[in-house]
Write a structure and sequence with these properties.
Elements: H1 2-25, H2 34-37, E1 42-47, E2 50-57, E3 65-70, E4 75-77, E5 79-82, E6 85-91, E7 94-106, E8 112-119, E9 125-130, E10 133-142, E11 145-154, H3 169-173, E12 179-184, H4 192-205, E13 211-216, H5 242-255
């Protein structure tokens, strides 16, 4: 009888140890009000030409989440683990297993000063917060529909590039500025070939000559590197397709003085 009691205690101890280890490896996701998460949104600088950007973005899950992305093309939801503490999983919207832990530092005034990003198997990195952009919450009315979002503009004087978030043909025909429109080859929400053709027809009808319409290979609706392009796949994806930043940089360098183009020519 005593033998079985000892065995049971050993099994119970092992089970408790496993549960504790798992809880340490995969912390609980804390519920944090969106207004608090917005305090962390902004630009953080690793070094002279390297940044990480935090912003509220609903594209990965359908709900507003704090998302981090940088020039590597990788993006991750920052899951709250506690006051000024976050963690990420191994995919864009996956929380386990834990890939990185992020701690936010504040100055004497209580304002966010920097963040430290610790990734498994890599040295910890610290990025200081920098103010290179302005953010403004905006709302528009369209009949009974209320459209809301955050307008992000450069802190420097304009003119600045603009992003069109809807594509009615009459508006496209009236465009007078240079145009870049990108579509994902694996976009399951729209038909990329049909949409590119519609843009081309509208711009041509308006007498526009300076425009580029590109379908990016392997890109889904959010320009993430995908395999099939379904919404269900999005959470496990890792990064934006490399062509996304390459095409945008090449286009900007052609139209805006002082913008460095892509490292490699864009076909």
């Amino acid at each position: 009888m005593r033998k079985w009691i000892v065995i049971a205690l050993i099994v119970l101890t092992a089970l408790v140890s496993t549960l504790i280890a798992r809880s340490l490896q995969n912390p609980a996701i804390r519920s944090v009000d969106e207004a608090i998460l917005r305090e962390y949104a902004g630009t953080y600088q690793w070094d002279r030409n390297a940044f990480v950007y935090l912003q509220i973005w609903p594209e990965l899950t359908g709900n507003n989440q704090l998302v981090a992305f940088d020039e590597t093309g990788e993006l991750r939801i920052l899951f709250p683990a506690g006051p000024d503490r976050f963690f990420t999983g191994a995919g864009a919207a996956i929380s386990a297993p834990v890939e990185s832990r992020i701690e936010v530092q504040r100055g004497d005034s209580g304002k966010i000063a920097s963040l430290t990003w610790s990734r498994e198997g890599a040295p910890a990195r610290t990025a200081r917060r920098v103010d290179i952009e302005r953010r403004e919450d905006v709302r528009f009315s369209n009949g009974d529909v209320q459209l809301a979002g955050t307008l992000i503009t450069s802190a420097t004087q304009g003119p600045h590039p603009a992003v069109i978030v809807h594509d009615p043909a009459p508006t496209i025909r009236r465009l007078q500025l240079p145009v870049l429109a990108l579509f994902g080859e694996l976009d399951n929400n729209i038909l990329p070939e049909k949409n590119r053709a519609a843009w081309d027809a509208a711009l041509t009808a308006g007498g526009h000559h300076d425009y580029m319409l590109r379908i990016l290979p392997k890109a889904n609706h959010a320009m993430l590197e995908a395999k099939v392009g379904t919404n269900a796949e999005t959470k496990s994806l890792q990064r934006f397709v490399p062509a996304y930043s390459e095409v945008v940089l090449a286009w900007l360098s052609k139209h805006i003085k002082g913008v460095a183009g892509a490292r490699q020519p864009v076909p």
